[in-house]
Amino acid sequence: MKSEFLETGEIVNTHGVRGEVKIIPWADSPDFLCRFDTLYIDAKPVKVLSSRVHKTAVLCTLEGVDTVETAMKLKGKVVCLRRDQIQLPEGYHFLVDLVGLKAIDAATGEELGAVAEVLPLPAQNVYVVRGKGKEYMIPAVPAFIVETNEDEGYIKVNLIEGMGE
Known about the structure:
This protein is mainly beta. Helix content is 5%, strand content 48%. The chain has a 6-stranded antiparallel beta barrel with strand order 1-2-5-4-3-6. A 6-stranded mixed sheet has the order 10-9-8-7-12-11. The longest helix has 5 residues, at 68-72. It is elongated.
């Protein structure tokens, strides 16, 4: 079952003297977090009064957080969004939802294992599939990922020689 909340970043520090927090986003772009007026910390809603991108981070002013001391109490906290707040474009998936999907060889129909993790590498994500004593490193590009079906719980992949250990 999919979680109601999606972890989207971590508060790593304070910024300035008025209680702003610095969030390292776990998304494709820091701009993503700036679109939301409510974040969730420890499953409790927190109103975002302002947010802006600063280098690779997001600086936020949160309701009720107006001093450095109050902001410091949030350091290390994970920031979440409610799943129903987010609309993904067609063909996009939350990485957390891919972990655990069965991986099936598109050519043979053989089950290879399950997606154990997703590595967010600079060129593209790589799906690590483990099963039957083997590990496959599969680039998340259309040449290798034929189909992703979260509802049915599988991905279909094209393999090439040397892809599995």
